[in-house]
Amino acid sequence: MKESEVCVSIKNVSKSFGKHQVLKDINLDINEGEIFGLLGPSGAGKTTLVKELAGLDEPSKGENYLFHEKMPSLNLIKRIGYMAQSDALYEELSAKENLQFFSELYGLKGQKQAQRIEEVMELVKLSGDITKLVSNYSGGMKRRLSLAIALLHEPELLILDEPTVGIDPVLRKSIWKAFSDLKAQGKTLIVTTHVMDEADKCDRLGLIRDGKLIAVGTPEELKKQTNSVTIEEAFLVFGGVER
């Protein structure tokens, strides 16, 4: 693979909190323009890893590179869109005020700001609720607003930590359609999930269990290697669990 095609490079990354090791010697390359899924149960280490990629934490050992630059790096903040597992929203403000606040942090002003706010709210199907206080939003609406904020500055790399938790199946489908559209624009997406049908929508998957990367490949490759019908079965085989 040509060096220029690699967008994210994780090299020998381990992370410990005290005596508890959360990530164990992870090596992984993620390519430009792909939807890469990190699949694993809660507590497997997915959130710790994506926080490092977003520059919010550092590994105990090893190095993370985004666009061939070592993280964390302030230079890269504008090139990354990050959606955390818990919504970082100002509940006492309206959705529009939240979007204006975050877009100003990214340097969006005037007509460009108004245009992007309109576009992202349309994308997440919240245009009709833009003046509503966030405290009056449901959990699913807050997830969608968090996604809209992550997309505001048109980042090249989107890091999304369980973006569809609490979102109904119809909207989940439309959000995955939006992910495909972003990929078609050349964006790279990293999506953590423990939902098996979402895993099948990714171009490639990294299976994580107990802080270890146990397999990497396309959904079809992983199923074929384990003689499995579903990703869930493949995960159990790679994890050494009897089917």
UniProtKB/TrEMBL annotation:
UniProt entry keywords in alphabetical sequence: ATP-binding, Nucleotide-binding
PROSITE patterns assigned: ABC_TRANSPORTER_1, ABC_TRANSPORTER_2
A molecular function GO annotation: ATP binding
Residues annotated as domain ABC transporter: 8-235
Domain of life: Bacteria
Protein name in the entry: ABC transporter ATP-binding protein
Organism: Sporosarcina highlanderae
